[in-house]
From TrEMBL, chain A:
The lineage of its organism: Bacteria, Bacillati, Actinomycetota, Actinomycetes, Pseudonocardiales. Residues 108-309 form the ABC transmembrane type-1 domain. Pfam families: BPD_transp_1, BPD_transp_1_N. This is ABC transporter permease. It is found in: Cell membrane. It is a multi-pass membrane protein. The chain crosses the membrane at residues 21-43, 114-135, 147-172, 187-209, 245-270, 290-316. Belongs to the binding-protein-dependent transport system permease family. It comes from Actinophytocola gossypii.
From TrEMBL, chain B:
Belongs to the binding-protein-dependent transport system permease family. Belongs to the ABC transporter superfamily. This is Dipeptide/oligopeptide/nickel ABC transporter permease/ATP-binding protein. The chain crosses the membrane at residues 12-35, 80-102, 109-129, 135-153, 195-218, 238-263. It comes from Actinophytocola gossypii. Residues 295-538 form the ABC transporter domain. PANTHER family: DIPEPTIDE TRANSPORT ATP-BINDING PROTEIN DPPD, OLIGOPEPTIDE TRANSPORT ATP-BINDING PROTEIN APPD. Keywords: ATP-binding, Cell membrane, Membrane, Nucleotide-binding, Transmembrane, Transmembrane helix, Transport. It comes from the Bacteria. It is a multi-pass membrane protein; Peripheral membrane protein. It is found in: Cell membrane; Membrane. Residues 74-263 form the ABC transmembrane type-1 domain. NCBIfam families: oligo_HPY (TIGR01727). InterPro entries: AAA+_ATPase, ABC_Ni/Peptide_Import, ABC_transporter-like_ATP-bd, ABC_transporter-like_CS, MetI-like, MetI-like_sf, Oligopep_ABC_C, P-loop_NTPase.
Length: 325, 611
């Protein structure tokens, strides 16, 4: 086989992988869209009456129902909803009267910033720490260090982000007065929300990475690398880390997904002007079009993260996904 | 099984988690009875006050005692969390066992839905369902229950699928046992353990998640209160009196941690095996081999905590020598090879009177200096001995980059050249491939090629052909033989296969229970073996003349357990010649005039071994 043929075959495998993964994404997105669409229909009773309250006149309720298209047959509403999605038309917020797409556009960047920064912090902290502690405590060495690491990471991982957020507010805001505890204004205001979001995932990742690294350290191919008498640095970074990263990336993806959800709570603690504080206020106000829009954005966000994880896994481990099926 | 569950209480962590969980449950029952009055009594004279002797955690905006409220809130928080977990577990079980119950097609649909739902974080699902079920405790309860369900369904699916494929379940099915009966009698009891463990952990997460929902205002509504609600109310006034936010926060963390730790302790107890503690034995050293050799091993011992699988091995090798070490599994032959290359696991302790290679003391300082250049290793399992994430060529080239100071391109050229030398076709193309694209035999040849990146004086091959089929085995062995002949490389071949060693090596060391019991030229193996174990090994090899109507010859008894060695000769319990002296005193390895060595009191008695 020539090099070109080989490359063609590899590209073929990638194309198949991409096609399969894309199909799965599309199905998931369709389920998500349908679920979001159904929200307004699954609510017991009349959502418009619920939103406007018992004091609203029947005329107002009827007019609002008509404006939302709720009197059309269900399939018609579904088609209209799908068409609206393709044209970027997501309806109108029932409380503010603004287009939902505009509210999303205003609020999304703040949430994205928070989630991505927190993820970056979590990875940058956990990978070196996990690797370091695996190497330090391999083969049952340094029991006290292992115990301290495990205890710290278990406790940190068990504290949910909103409680951590409260604790951070108390320590750095109330007691020390070093950092602002509310709003999004300047670099200092990012510190506490990002920390609150990043610490628990960092602890989980570091723990998993240590366990994975310990397992890889016992693997035959690491013995081979030692038999080649490579410097420790090469053994750890080239032969150990890529292999222990695969599990960490899978888990990291799950964590990034749950971080997207964690922003909801953290934003509410720090009055962060993102999607998270908006979805809670809109649920409380029964502003269903806005809820639908935000659910879609969060859902798509999670699906995209999952896709990226699969691609990263395929790149890291040549045996993985692209070879299946 | 009950005793295994009780094992949780034996570990300090499990015991404290269990005590904490029990305390929380008791508090949940008693607190409303004891402190409801204190928690609801308003005191307008003391509104929003900080902690004091009277009110340990201060008072809220109506002057109610926050500490009492936190205690009373235990009840609602725990009940809601447990109820949500119960909903999640029941729905999850139904969804997860659907493939077994409702037939293949409907089951597949359920699986697909679960797989999509599982991709979303629980909190998002809970928010989604909270919109549908409405704001309030009941809505949040069902929302959280349904949010827990997919993960539990996935777990149920995978665990039951594993059990459902087992023979006894298939047998029950064929016997006409109904689906529900199969599920409840045969499948669920066998997957109960992981499900219980996960339900415990899920209860902890539900507690935290419910606190989150109430904190956001989506869960418990006033005048009711749970920890999340109290936390939300306290946060607004955190600058005034932090205790109002911290007290419920601490309660949530403690309770969540208790359930999580209890679950983890359960998982550990159910999945663990006892570590073995064994006494260490000492035996006499073997006579010293001569000094000038390329490799000198003298009284080599490898000990792990509690066992000493290699107990004083000594031999010497010269350039171009081919020495084989044979023995059953557990005889210490592989550890001997690893000890020579200084690759024994961290937990093992290697000691020797002498361990020198090309004049360098392998025991001292940065002792692995020669490894990878003068000393090459070939391992047993070519499937796992390469790094799966690196191309073969790079893995070979690394050696040259590191030890010969070659650049990347030059090193890769050498790697291709070495792959060619080990008869890998199209070496340039193959070098760019990953290990999984190589067959087992090719990988083993590539592994030998890796050893040839330097200019080795000794190749240590640990069962290099065990994982390969017979035709491939022959090619790998002849490759090793050719390399040895061409470059005067010495070969230390570890194998359990006497025939292989006989073909490839000039000398054979027979190991039993961590010691060399016989050392002789391989040409004399069949004619002049003196140790009963060696003769038994040979007799156990079938050949073309073996009468195939008879059962295969085996060595009676079990291989020696390095942790439970008898006092005398380790082979005595299985030896047809054993007498009192054998069971009392271990024989030394004694050399005769021709350099053959044997460790047996009866080495000179001819023995008839059943063949």
């Amino acid at each position: 086989m020539t090099t070109t043929a080989l490359r063609a075959r590899t590209e073929h495998a990638w194309a198949r992988f991409a096609a399969r993964r894309l199909a799965r994404l599309l199905v998931s997105v369709w389920v998500l869209i349908t679920a979001a669409f159904l929200i307004i229909h699954l609510i017991p009773g009349d959502p418009v009456r619920a939103a406007l309250g018992p004091t609203a006149t029947p005329e107002l309720v009827a007019a609002r129902r008509a404006a939302l298209g709720l009197d059309d047959p269900l399939w018609q509403q579904y088609v209209d909803y799908l068409r609206g999605l393709f044209t970027g038309e997501l309806g109108t917020s029932m409380t503010s009267g603004l287009p939902v797409s505009q509210v999303l556009g205003d609020r999304l960047p703040a949430t994205l910033e928070l989630a991505l920064l927190a993820f970056a912090v979590a990875v940058l902290v956990s990978v070196p720490v996990g690797l370091l502690f695996a190497v330090l405590t391999r083969g049952g060495r340094r029991r006290p260090a292992e115990l301290g690491f495990t205890a710290t990471s278990i406790v940190l991982a068990a504290i949910p982000e909103f409680l951590l957020a409260v604790a951070l507010v108390w320590i750095f805001g109330v007691n020390l007065g070093w950092l602002p505890v509310a709003g999004r204004d300047g670099a200092a205001s990012y510190v506490l929300p990002v920390l609150a979001l990043a610490l628990a995932p960092a602890a989980v990742l570091a723990r998993i990475l240590r366990v994975e690294t310990l397992a890889v350290l016992r693997a035959d191919h690491v013995r081979t690398a030692r038999a080649k008498r490579l410097p420790d640095r090469h053994v750890y970074l080239r032969h150990v880390l890529p292999n222990s990263l695969t599990a960490a990336v899978t888990l990291g993806g799950l964590l990034l997904g749950s971080m997207v959800a964690g922003t909801v709570l953290v934003e509410n603690v720090f009055a962060w002007p993102g999607l998270g504080s908006t979805i809670v206020s809109s649920i409380l106000a029964k502003d269903y079009p806005l809820v639908q829009g935000i659910v879609l954005v969060y859902g798509v966000g999670v699906l995209v993260v999952n896709l990226l994880v699969d691609v990263a896994l395929a790149l890291l481990d040549p045996r993985s996904t692209i070879r299946e099926g | 099984m009950a005793r295994r569950w009780a094992g949780v209480l034996r570990s300090p962590l499990g015991a404290s988690a269990a005590v904490l969980v029990a305390a929380i449950l008791v508090l949940a029952v008693l607190a409303p009875l004891l402190w409801t009055d204190a928690a609801t009594a308003t005191d307008t004279a003391r509104i929003s006050q900080g902690a004091s002797a009277e009110h340990w955690a201060g008072t809220d905006s109506l002057g109610r005692d926050i500490f009492a409220r936190v205690l009373v809130a235990t009840s609602l928080s725990v009940r809601l969390a447990l109820a949500a977990t119960a909903i999640g577990v029941v729905v999850g079980l139904l969804l997860g066992t659907a493939p077994l119950l409702v037939g293949r097609r409907a089951g597949r649909l359920v699986t697909a839905v679960v797989n999509i739902a599982v991709a979303f974080p629980g909190l998002l699902l809970a928010l989604f369902f909270a919109v549908i079920f409405g704001v309030g405790a009941t809505g949040a309860l069902f929302a959280l229950g349904l949010a827990i369900a997919p993960a539990f369904a996935r777990l149920t699916q995978t665990t039951t699928a594993r059990v459902a494929g087992l023979d006894y379940v298939a047998a029950a099915r064929i016997a006409g046992v109904g689906r529900f009966r199969v599920l409840f009698r045969h499948v669920l009891p066998n997957v109960a353990e992981p499900l219980v463990v996960n339900a415990t952990v899920a209860a902890g997460s539900a507690l935290l998640a419910f606190a989150g929902l109430s904190f956001l205002g989506l869960g418990v509504q006033p005048p009711d209160y749970d920890w999340g609600r109290l936390l939300g109310e306290g946060l607004g006034a955190i600058y005034l009196h932090p205790a109002a936010a911290l007290a419920p926060g601490v309660a949530v963390v403690l309770a969540g941690l208790a359930f999580n730790l209890f679950g983890e302790a359960l998982a550990k107890v159910l999945g663990e095996r006892r570590p073995l503690e064994r006494p260490v034995r000492r035996t006499a050293a073997e006579p010293a081999p001569d000094d000038s050799a390329m490799l000198v091993v003298e009284d080599l011992r490898v000990a792990f905590p509690g066992v000493e699988p290699v107990r004083g091995v000594g031999f010497a090798m010269d350039r171009g020598d081919a020495v084989g070490i044979v023995g059953e599994s557990g005889s210490g032959k592989s550890l001997t090879a690893l000890a020579v290359s200084r690759l024994v696991d961290e937990s093992g302790e290697v000691r020797a009177e002498r361990l020198s290679f090309l004049g360098a003391d392998l025991r001292a300082g940065p002792h692995r200096r020669l490894l990878g250049t003068s000393l090459a290793m070939v391992f047993q399992d070519p499937m796992t001995s390469f790094n799966p994430t690196m191309r073969i060529g790079r893995q070979l080239a690394e050696v040259a980059c590191e030890h010969q100071g070659l650049g990347r391109a030059a090193a890769l050229d050498r790697a291709v050249d070495r792959l060619d030398a080990v008869r890998i076709p199209e070496p340039a193309r193959r070098a760019a491939q990953y290990p999984h694209e190589f067959s087992g035999g090719m990988r083993q040849r590539a592994m030998i090629g890796m050893g040839l990146m330097g200019s080795p004086a000794l190749i240590v091959a640990d069962e290099p052909t065990t994982a390969l089929d017979v035709t491939v085995q022959r090619r790998v062995l002849s490759l090793l033989a050719d390399i040895r002949a061409a470059d005067d490389v010495a070969l230390l071949l570890i194998s359990h296969d006497v025939t292989v060693v006989e073909q490839v090596c000039d000398r054979v060391l027979v190991m039993y229970a961590g010691r060399i019991v016989e050392d002789l030229p391989s040409a004399e193996l069949r004619s002049r073996a003196r140790h009963p174990y060696t003769r038994a090994l040979l007799a156990a090899v079938p050949d073309m003349t073996t009468d195939r109507s008879l059962p295969l010859a085996v060595i009676p008894g079990r291989p020696a357990d390095p942790a439970h060695l008898p006092t005398g000769c380790a082979f005595a319990p299985r030896c047809p010649l054993a007498d009192e002296r054998c069971t009392a005193t271990e024989p030394d390895l004694v050399a005769d005039d021709a350099g053959r060595r044997v460790a047996c009191w009866h080495a000179d008695i001819p023995v008839e071994v059943r063949a």
